[in-house]
Structure formats: C-alpha cells, structure tokens
Design goal:
296 residues; alpha/beta; Helix Hairpins; Immunoglobulin-like; 2 domains; elongated
C-alpha cells in the first residue's frame, strides 16, 4: 500500500509540475530593460539569436586577448625589470615572432569577419515577408501603417506618468502598440517626418534609422507571443527620451481579429481587444495555478 501511495503522490507531483510548466510556457513574454542586468536582452527573433551568438563569440575572443596581453605585460614587468635583468638585451628583431604577431591577428580578424558579414546580410534581407508595416518617426512619437490590412494607421504616443496603470513601465508604455502575428516575417519600411530617428527593439534584433525623404527597409519575426519594448536611439530633439516603442506579438488568429476590429471600429476597439486578450490570459493563468494547488 505504501508503494502505491508513494507512486500516487509522485504522479500528482509530476502533474502539478507539468501544469506549472504549461502555465509558464503559455505566458507571453515581456522583454524590457532591467536595472542592474548584465548582458543583452533575451533574443526573441532569428536575427536577435544570431546577434547574441555573435556577441558571445566576440566576448570569448576579447577575454582571451585581454588575458594574453595582461599576462604578457606582467611577465615583462617581472622578468625584464632593472633588478632582474641589469644588462638589457640588444636583440633587434625576431623573424618567427614577427610573423606570429602578424599572422595571428589576421586569423582573429577573419574569425570575426566571417560571422559578422553573415549576421549583417541576414539582418538586411527580407525573407518572403507575409505582411508590411510602414513606420514613421515624428517629434516625438511613432506612427504605424498596415497597407496589407486596408491601410490601418495610427499614432503611438508615450503614456504620461499620471496615466500609467499598475504594472505598466514608466517611460516605456504607449497608448497604441504595434501589433504583429507571431512567427511571421514582417517587412518594415521606415522613414522620418521631420528629423532622423532610430527605431530600436533589442530583443527582436532590429535597429534602423528613419530618415526624412528616404525609406529604409528591414524585417522582424517574433518567435513567441509577448510584449517587446524599445526606444528611439538617435538624439532627435528635446523629447528624444519620450518616444518609446512597443511591439505586441500575438497569435495569427488574434492578429486577424485585432486587424478586423481596428479596421471596422478604429484603433480604440483594437486597443480594447488587446486588453481583453491580456485579461483572459491572466484569468487562465490564475485558474490553472489554482487547479495545481488543489492537486497538491
């Protein structure tokens, strides 16, 4: 009997853990700057993953170079100071050493250059985009147009401190978020209405200038549902720090519903639909957590 009871308890524990895992996996991510955090924000797009891998490669190379140079300096200070080496060497050259310190840096540069160009060209191409979003930078807000969805367009302004709701981050919250379907290549066309701006969302690996009189092109593909925060990264005037970027990635079904509501009833209806999605997911999470607690 005790064996059966232990087996039943173990099965219940596994069920509870699986339930918790499913809740965690179902939760949309929220990617934003964190105080005191070291390193890059977590990557949530194919381009961001490649950028993160390239960053890590460079980090290892730089650590190796710094360690080698530091060790070399320390060795020179200890072995070739005046006390340890009263008679200085008169060596004027060393062919093998000179070849080595020429060839090794060249090899390091090649190791850096190959993945660098690979990432550069991968981020610059637009692989079979399924939709297009035109982004225009203004002093000091962004506007978004969806030409593939009956020219849906709206402005995205920062929410002032007095209007923030509990849980909304200061200086990063906007009234209308850019909405994209998850797992979908999205072509981005950027331009500026007045001065040069820069549209940057680090966790999606996207940064591109918005230049007046010119259209620049890039792309993004969110790998998971969630909210991704960014900022204008080019000083564009007095309120440069008050034009945040928020990209909201939802399922393809939810995106179609959002586009339909926004197209027929306006951006306020689209905003209300997104709020209802968040509320529903929050309620589902609470219910699942309660069920897991009861199972224990």
């Amino acid at each position: 009997m005790s064996v059966r009871k232990n087996a039943a308890a173990f099965a219940a524990l596994l069920t509870a853990l699986a339930g918790r895992a499913s809740v965690a996996l179902a939760d949309p991510v929220v990617s934003m700057p964190e105080a005191g955090k070291l390193g890059m924000q977590h990557a949530y797009s194919p381009v961001a993953v490649q950028l993160e891998n390239f960053h890590n490669l460079l980090l290892y190379i730089i650590i190796g170079i710094v360690a080698f140079v530091s060790l070399l300096l320390l060795t020179v200070m200890v072995r070739f100071n005046k006390r340890a080496n009263p008679v200085p060497s008169k060596t004027s050259h060393h062919t093998l050493l000179e070849v080595a310190w020429t060839v090794v840096p060249v090899l390091i540069l090649v190791i850096v250059a190959v993945p660098s160009f690979r990432v550069l060209y991968y981020g610059d191409r637009t692989p079979n985009p399924e939709m297009t979003v035109k982004i225009t930078g203004h002093q000091w807000y962004w506007s978004y147009e969806y030409p593939d969805n009956n020219d849906i367009s709206f402005d995205s302004n920062i929410v002032s401190d007095g209007d923030l709701k509990p849980g909304q981050p200061r200086l990063l919250t906007v009234d209308n978020e850019m909405v994209v379907p998850v797992g979908t290549p999205v072509r981005l066309l950027l331009t500026g209405a007045d001065v040069i701006h820069s549209w940057y969302v680090p966790s999606l690996g996207v940064q591109l200038h918005a230049v007046p009189g010119r259209i620049n092109e890039t792309w993004l593909q969110a790998s998971t549902e969630g909210t991704f925060y960014g900022q204008c990264t080019l000083i564009c005037g007095t309120n440069h720090g008050f034009m945040p970027i928020v990209v909201h990635a939802v399922s393809k079904e939810d995106y179609k519903a959002w586009a339909e509501k926004t197209k027929t009833a306006g951006i306020d209806a689209g905003r209300a639909f997104l709020a209802s999605l968040e509320a529903a997911k929050g309620a589902t999470k609470t219910a699942l957590a309660t069920d897991n607690g009861a199972a224990r």
